[in-house]
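**User:**
My hope is that you can spare some time for a protein that puzzles me. This is the protein in question:
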Amino acid sequence: MNTDSYLGFNVRLPIGLQVISPIVNSNTPLDDFALFLCTVLGTDQFQPYRTELEASLRDGPLKGTDRTKLNVAVRSLAIESAEEITSNFISKLKEKLVPNENATPSVAQSKKELDSFAEKNLAGFKQLSPAKNKETATKAATKVSEVVTKYQIPPASVTKAAQLAFYDFILLCDDSGSMQSDTRIKTLEASVRGLFKVARLLNSETRFAMYPFQNPVWENLKTEAEMEAAIKNMKYNTGEDAPKPLDSRVLKPLLAKARAKTLTPTVVVVITDGAIGDVSSFCKNIAKFNSEIKSYGYTGPAVLFLICRVGEDKHAAVSLQGLKTDQAIKQILFYSEDSLDAKLASMGSNTDAYVGMVIEDLVKAMDLQAYKA
C-alpha cells in the first residue's frame, strides 16, 4: 500500500488513543478496504470492545501502561494485522466475487432462497399461508446439508431440490404384466422407496400417494411401513397404458381441487415401461390441464410432471421420445430419456445416489415452470 496516497486525520476515542484513518486519493481495492475498515471500527457494533479496552487501561491489566509503549504496541499490532489481512486478501476477495460452487449453502442462505421461491411461485395457493410457507422453508433449510451428502446433489442445485418440501407427491406406477420382465419391478420399487424417504426428510407433512395404472390406489402414505405394504401388495397383471390412468386418476381429481381452491403444489411422477400411444393427444391433454388450473389462479410450477421409463423396450423408447419435441408440453413436462434401470445400474448399490439423479430430474421439471426473475 503506497502511504504517499494518504492524508491523515485523527479520531480521538474515549480512551485517549489516536487512530489514524486514511483519506484516500487513490482508488485501489486495498485502499478502499482500509477506509471501509476504519469506518466499520467506528460504528456502534464495536462500542463494547472500545469500552472493554478503556476499562482495561483504567482499572484492569493495562492500568498504568506508558503512553509511548502503548502507542508502539498498537502500531506493531496494526502492522501484524495488516500483514495477515493482505497475505490472503486476493483469495478472500475472490471468494466474495465468485462464490465457491462446491460449498453447501448455509441454513440461512437456503431459507432465504426457499422463502423467495414460495413468495414468487406459490402465491396462488391461498390455503398455504405465508406463515406456513416460512415454517416449511425453515425446516427444509436445515436438511440441505444432509441432502447434499446423502443424495449427492450438487451444492449449486440443492436449494432447488429442497423446494420439493412444498410439494405433495403422486407416483403413477405401471402395473401391466410386462413390468415383470428383467429388473423393471425392482427399479420401480427402489424409486418409490427413495422418493418417499426424501419427501418425508424435507417435509414430514408431505402427502405421498402411490397410484397403480388400474389396481387399487394407496393415498397419503405416512410411514415407511405403510409405503412398504403398498409396494408388497402391488400387482402387475393389467394391460393398461399411461394416458387413461393419468387422466382419470391424476389430472381430473387435481383439476377438481383447483376448481374448489383446495389444490396443493403437487409432483406427478409417471413410471412406465410401455408406449403412450398417440403422443400428440397425450401432450394436449396435459397442456389443457395446465391451462385450466392457471385459469383458477394456479400459475407457475403448481403441478410438476416427470415421465420416467423402466425397461429397454425399444418401441416404448421411441414412443416416449416424442415427449421431448412436442411443443404443447415443452415448458410443462420433463421426460428423462435414460431409463431408470440404467441410472440405478450406474450407481451400483448406492440407491441414495440413484434417487439423487431422479431428484435432479424433478428440479429440471420445476425449472420449466418456475418464475424467472
About this structure: The longest strand covers residues 6-12. The CA atoms of residues 131 and 137 lie 10 Å apart. The longest helix spans residues 67-87.
